[in-house]
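Supplementary Note 3. Input sequence used for the single-chain structure prediction.
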Amino acid sequence: MDRDQFIELVRQRAAVPASRRLDGMPLTDAEMAETLVRATLQVLAQRISGGEARDIARQLPPPLDEWLQPEHEKAEAFDLEVFVQRVADRALVDFDAAQAGVRAVFQTLREAVTGDEFEDVLAQLPREYTALLDESE
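The predicted structure, written as discrete structure tokens, is reproduced below.
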């Protein structure tokens, strides 16, 4: 899956219009989706181990792979609500828009990387993260 396909799938799945951005910055819906992808991957890189973040990043096209680069080797433990709030803060959207974005990115990530690799990511996350994916199916 290339960058444009990934962003487009997230745009369709999240259905978060650019008008939801809190600072009023004029973006297209595709730019909003890209913002949500970047924020979600950056927060995911904090939440999983550095090795796992790099493993997933190797399967993603540029610049998505760069957004998943870990700042630390050790995963930072925080729950799904904190994860979504961090995405909201980075993307400058409200909590509901961030939650839709996180769900869409996780769905798309599941399709973009090998099944084993995605399962390795989920194994590092509490059940509530998996439930987020289950809600969308």
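The mean pLDDT is 93. The helical segments are 3-14, 29-47, 50-57, 64-67, 80-91, 95-112, 115-123, 127-135.
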